[in-house]
Amino acid sequence: MTNNSRAPDPGPDPDSTPGTDRDAAADRTPPTPAAPPADPTRGTASDAAPAVHARALTVVRGRRTVLDALSFDVAPGTVTGLLGPSGSGKSTLIRAVVGTQAKVTGTLDVLGHPAGAPPLRSRVGYVTQDPSVYTDLTARQNLDYYAAVLGIPRRDRPAAVDRALTDVDLTDHADDLAGNLSGGQRSRVSLAVALLGTPELLVLDEPTVGLDPVLRRDLWHLFHRLAARGTTLLISSHVMDEADRCEQLLLVREGTLLAAGSPDALRARTGTRTVEDAFLALVETARPASAPHTGEAPA
C-alpha cells in the first residue's frame, strides 16, 4: 500500500542534496495508454478477481460501530463511487482499504493481499481529502521528492514527473511554488503524487470537494482515462450528482451498505429517476429494520 499523499516529512531528499537533483535530466518513455474498451461491462470485469473484496468488514471504535459488516467487491479497471452523506463511514472505509485504519475485523483483501500488506505499497495510491505538499517547493520539486521516496530510479524521474503533471493538467504551473497555487491546484499536485507510481488501485477521498465545475469535470475525465488504462479507482463523495460519472456505486449510510450496483441498476431497483432519489428510497426501505448507528466522526 502506498500512501502517496501522506503528510510531508521535512526530512531531506532521500538520495540527493536538497535543491541539486530535483531537476535531473533523463528520460523515461511513459506508458502508452491502452485504447478504452468498447464497453467496460460488469460481465467482463467479473471474470477477473476483484480489486477489493470485503466480507463482514467491521470497524468498532469504543462503543461506536463505524462500519457494520460490509460485504462488497470492486471490479478491476472500473470507476467505483463510494457515496453517502458526511459521517456515514466513507473515510473510515477508505482508510481500511489502504491499510491505515485500526481495529478492522472481517475480510478485506486488496489486489489479492490483505489490506495494508507490504506487497501493496507500490501498487496502491491514496489521495486524502486535504492536499499534503511542501508549500516551499514547486509542484515539480514536490513530485521529484516523492518519486525518490517511491524508489523511482533517478534517470526515470523527470519523465515520470512530467507524465503526472500532464495527467493533472499542471504543466503550466509546474515551476510555481505550491504555496502560491490555489487550493484546487494543490489538490491536483497531491493527485499527481499518487499517479507517480502508476498504481493499480487509486483510492481518492472526496477529491472534488471545493473544486469549480470545470475542474470537477476535467478530473472525472481523467479518472475514466485512468480506468481505460486498467487502473481501478475507488472514489468517495457526498455529492450525489457525481453518481452518474461512476460505473459502479457503493451507497453507505450510518456505517451500513444500503446497496451496490450501477447507477442504472439502482434506479431500476427503486423505480426512481435519479441516484439521489434511489438513495432516499433505500434509506426509507431500510429504516424499519435498521438498528441505530452513530456513524463516524467527521474526518
From TrEMBL:
GO terms for molecular function: ATP binding; ATP hydrolysis activity. Residues 1-50 are annotated as: Disordered. PROSITE patterns: ABC_TRANSPORTER_1, ABC_TRANSPORTER_2. Pfam families: ABC_tran. The keyword Nucleotide-binding applies. SUPFAM superfamilies: P-loop containing nucleoside triphosphate hydrolases (SSF52540). Residues 30-39 have a biased composition (Pro residues). The keyword Nucleotide-binding applies. Residues 52-279 form the ABC transporter domain. Keywords: ATP-binding, Nucleotide-binding. CDD domains: ABC_DR_subfamily_A. This is Multidrug ABC transporter ATP-binding protein.
